Amino acid sequence: MKTRITELLGIEYPIIQGGMAWVAEHNLAAAVSNAGGLGLIAAASAPPEVVREEIRKTKELTDKPFGVNVMLLNPNAEEVAHIVVEEGVKVVTTGAGNPGKFMELWKENGVKVIPVVASVAMAKMMQRGGADAVVAEGMESGGHIGSATTMTLVPQIVDAVSIPVIAAGGIADGRGFAAATMLGAEGVQMGTAFVVAKESIVHENYKQRIIKAKDIDSEITGMSTGHPIRVIRNKMTKEYQRKEKEGASFEELELLTLGSLRKAVMDGDVVNGSVMAGQIAGMIKEEQTTKEIIENVMKQAKELLNR
Ligand SMILES: Cc1cc2nc3c(=O)[nH]c(=O)nc-3n(C[C@H](O)[C@H](O)[C@H](O)COP(=O)(O)O)c2cc1C
User: Fold this and answer.
1) Ligand 1: distance of its center to the CA of 20 in Å?
2) In 28, 161, 176, 251, which residue has its Cα 20 to 30 A from 294's Cα atom?
3) Which atom of ligand 1 is nearest to the CA of 44?
4) What is the residue extent of each domain of the chain?
5) What's the rounded mean pLDDT across residues 63-67?
């Protein structure tokens, strides 16, 4: 399937693996790229030299294109922006802010820039700033979220910009891919589906929590602090919401979630940790290789789109 996204990124299938803090490291990124999609390394708040190491390890595992997700509000963003260029990475996705400050550096060095946005206004601003495409991310997504749903956001952004749009949030099979295509997207970004991939290094407890999740097991923490994050419900979210109702301070709430994603991903503490995952977790029922995930999505999507 050829779209402006496959052309822009030089990949076989218009499927991007979301940059996911603690989850999106070299094994997963390389596996997705080798399977024909675009793998991403999440810089998140990792020390810049760790990001450089991750890039080098990815290069050892694949000769296909891959990218780095830069969270612009993190103190490491500036250094990571330069490391990306030094290491010859050709694609960057950005979150949490405006990549304007790094645009010239990246563009001069042939880096394709794809900001993740949750509103039409942001999408337009990114296009004006020289972005090559945008990821329109609906609030069904795992992790940090905006307020519009994928179904409503994608067509509005498609209408508002001329650069290609990648849909994210709630997509994990060919039906989701086909629906996103119908809304005008030229590619999809999937996060939760790849968390449970065989090549994903997340703790088995985390994968099993997603596999066992029901449709209504999704919760949002941080609504009152202005930093909403979608996770799967557990003891931590119950405690969080209780404290939120009691009017706990920002600091007190932060304390509850501090380091909590690492706790869940690395230690497998899915009771007190933050099990970030999207609403589509309820549909994911087994661990598959990245190749199986991507090929199944494409096969089902092609059948539906050819009807
Ligand atoms: C565990 C987890 C961590 C995430 N961390 C980040 C991140 O560091 N940067 C980012 O831009 N998006 C992050 N996301 C969002 C994903 O990149 C992706 O856009 C989202 O998961 C897509 O929605 P889906 O989960 O419904 O597939 C994260 C998502 C999850 C599930």
Assistant:
1) 5
2) 161
3) 8
4) 4-201, 214-276
5) 97
CA of 189 to the centre of ligand 1 (A): 9
**Ligand 1: nearest atom to the Cα of 95:** 11
Ligand 1 atom closest to 135 (CA): 19
Bridge partners, 52 (sequence order)? none
Identify which of 92, 98, 91 has the alpha carbon closest to the alpha carbon of residue 123: 98
Long-range contacts of 185-188 (CB under 8 A, 24+ apart): 185/136, 185/154, 185/158, 186/3, 186/4, 186/5, 186/14, 186/133, 187/3, 187/5, 187/6, 187/14, 187/15, 187/16, 187/133, 188/14, 188/15, 188/16, 188/297
Give the right CATH number for 4-201 from 3.20.20.70, 3.40.50.2300, 3.40.50.720, 3.90.1720.10. 3.20.20.70
Q: Name the nearest CA neighbour of 283 among 270, 272, 296.
A: 296
Contact 152, 133 (CB under 8 A): no
Ligand 1 pocket mutation pick from 22, 114, 141, 284 by most atoms within 8 angstroms of CB:
141
Q: How far is the CA of 307 from the centre of ligand 1 (A)?
A: 31
Q: What is the mean pLDDT of residues 93-122?
A: 94
Measured between alpha carbons, how far is 279 from 288 in angstroms, rounded to an integer? 19
Which helix (H) or strand (E) element contains residue 232?
Answer: strand 229-232
pLDDT given for residue 96 in this prediction: 80
